[in-house]
Amino acid sequence: xxxxxxxxxxxxxxxxxxxxxxxxxxxxxxxxxxxxxxxxxxxxxxxxxxxxxxxxxxxxxxxxxxxxxxxxxxxxxxxxxxxxxxxxxxxxxxxxxxxxxxxxxxxxxxxxxxxxxxxxxxxxxxxxxxxxxxxxxxxxxxxxxxxxxxxxxxxxxxxxxxxxxxxxxxxxxxxxxxxxxxxxxxxxxxxxxxxxxxxxxxxxxxxxxxxxxxxxxxxxxxxxxxxxxxxxxxxxxxxxxxxxxxxxxxxxxxxxxxxxxxxxxxxxxxxxxxxxxxxxxxxxxxxxxxxxxxxxxxxxxxxxxxxxxxxxxxxxxxxxxxxxxxxxxxxxxxxxxxxxxxxxxxxxxxxxxxxxxxxxxxxxxxxxxxxxxxxxxxxxxxxxxxxxxxxxxxxxxxxxxxxxxxxxxxxxxxxxxxxxxxxxxxxxxxxxxxxxxxxxxxxxxxxxxxxxxxxxx
Length: 457
Hints:
This protein is of the alpha/beta class and 457 residues long. It has a domain at 56-179 and 408-416: NAD(P)-binding Rossmann-like Domain (Rossmann fold). The protein is 33% helix and 21% strand. The protein is built from 13 helices and 17 strands. The protein has helices spanning 18-24, 65-75, 91-100, 110-114, 131-140, 155-166, 182-192, 230-234, 244-248, 259-276, 366-386, 403-416, 424-443, and strands spanning 9-12, 37-41, 56-61, 80-86, 105-107, 121-124, 144-148, 172-175, 199-207, 284-290, 303-310, 313-320, 325-333, 336-341, 344-349, 393-396, 447-448. Helix 5 (131-140) links the parallel strand 6 (121-124) and strand 7 (144-148). The longest helix has 21 residues, at 366-386.
């Protein structure tokens, strides 16, 4: 995986005391209120531009919530040109023309787009259960692919997608934009410099508390068996009668989606992989949770806590759709804590040494205690005086999740044939962890993988 170069820092921002911040009020992440040194991150460098007059010709497959966001972002980029859009729901054909222009070609069949040799690449933003088929077909048709996260619906699907890339001259970039975020790239740079010392533990969390956050999306009033190719949408999963709830809220159902793991956890894991350089499936996963709040017919949990082991590094993740909490990535090491939360990165160094005689002396007789303290201060005070006290440093950024640079990197890779920033192997490893987490939840046991990246043991 190619990683963009570290960012330069701009001038420090004015110091803000904890008391003055709290008096002013605020709900930003903890990193934003820590006393210490504060800096503003420079803008994310834009990948090498596509030559003028030679935009990348792309098509979008799937124009739902994320697919429409991706198309809007791509339409703002002069290096990209939308040729056509495919979606099985006719209402999204109207949306496509609203976003990309009245003359935009639309179709229900994505195969029509793959047959068009003038289309160089595709953006795939279909439900999880269709990722493998559309991506493999696109690669076989000679297209590069931007595939939304999670890359796959199962470990077997991910393996097939990796093989399809290996067998082609084309590539997949996975759409988890943490790897293109200025904040995560700054955290990555700090980690590579040894800022936290030996990696000991990772803590990740994200919580929502709203119907929309729990995927209870509104159902289009014109949705019907006439306006949607329901049979094609179901694909290879067991067939059921036309169900507008399943179509609109597919993340709630195991047959089509991957639940909170594939929607939320995969972002956290991708960010962790980006920072630490861990590019592997976990050795094991253990999940607990349940459907505690949104008892609306779904079969995916709305509360899920998972512990992974990546070699000797434990990674714990807490997800909830019943309690809103900040999105936090916390890297814990022998020299301190590196945290990404809100719109800031914070580094809190730790010396790992005693700064005063150990409190274990309280169990010693007074004379022995006093003599030990005297000797301790004589030996340690010069060193402690010579070192400035540990101070938290905070870097503030404009964006947590940079979609535009991620798409720009994709289009640049299409034109220049340089590796994408988030390739199929990286995406497979992140998705594999999510599948292992879900398998552990449903099977009620620890799930393990072998050494080759995710096959269940």
